[in-house]
Amino acid sequence: MKNIAKRLSEYFMVCIMILFVCGSINKVLAYEFIATINGEVLKIDVQDVTYKWRKNIRGKPLKVTGKVSKGEFTNIEWISSECELLDMSDLEIDVIPHQSFIERNNLRVIILPKKLKEIEPCCFSGCYNLETVVLPESLREIGHGSFQSCPRLKMQVSSWIKFTDDDFYRSPGVTIVEVEPEVPSCRFCSWVWDCMGLGGIHDQKKYA
To answer: How many whole angstroms separate alpha carbon 61 and alpha carbon 80?
Structure first.
């Protein structure tokens, strides 16, 4: 009886360990973001080492929604490697990691997350065919060399965003827009001093 009880307890412990390991694996593999093409969920075969499924992305708009951590962002880099238009507007992340889309010559249009605060260094460096980047109002910092050597890029960057001269090196289509801070208005002074809308574009500087 003692031997049977011992074996049962050992079997029970092994089962618990298996369940724990399987749960950990599922936690690692289960990402909270969804990739879609024209409204259809992208089917990814991670076992296919030839990456034939990537042909379904080539030349089509790819939209990524949901949550993703900075460490998991490499999966989005991997999935989007063949697309021309990448829409991340509804992706919940506040930092784009460094060199995420470096030298992506196929990438033409990218819509950044609405809550994005920072673009780390060299994110879009060397994207020769990149034409349009939609920056969110929440963006506060552009890392070193993030948009350098993007000769076809047409983009306006607000002056309140932190950046360096090297960020747009060899990207003549980038314009720095000088913007004054918004001044709150009130009903009383709006008709006395006409102070409504004092904030706004103050000046524009062409970046060459």
So the answer is: 10
Pairing state of beta strands 33-37 and 95-96?
unpaired
CB 116 within 8 A of CB 96: yes
Q: Any residues with CB less than 8 A from the CB of 159 and at least 6 apart, and which? A: 176, 177, 178, 179
Is residue 19 classed as helix, strand or coil in its secondary structure? helix
Number of domains in the chain: 1
| Residue 117 located in a structural domain | yes
What is the model's pTM? 0.70
The per-residue pLDDT for range 193-206, each reduced to its tens digit, is 344 443 444 445 55
Q: How far apart are CA 124 and CA 206, in angstroms?
A: 20
Q: Cα–Cα distance between 88 and 77 in angstroms, integer?
A: 12
CB 148 within 8 A of CB 166: yes
| Domain assignment present for 185 | yes
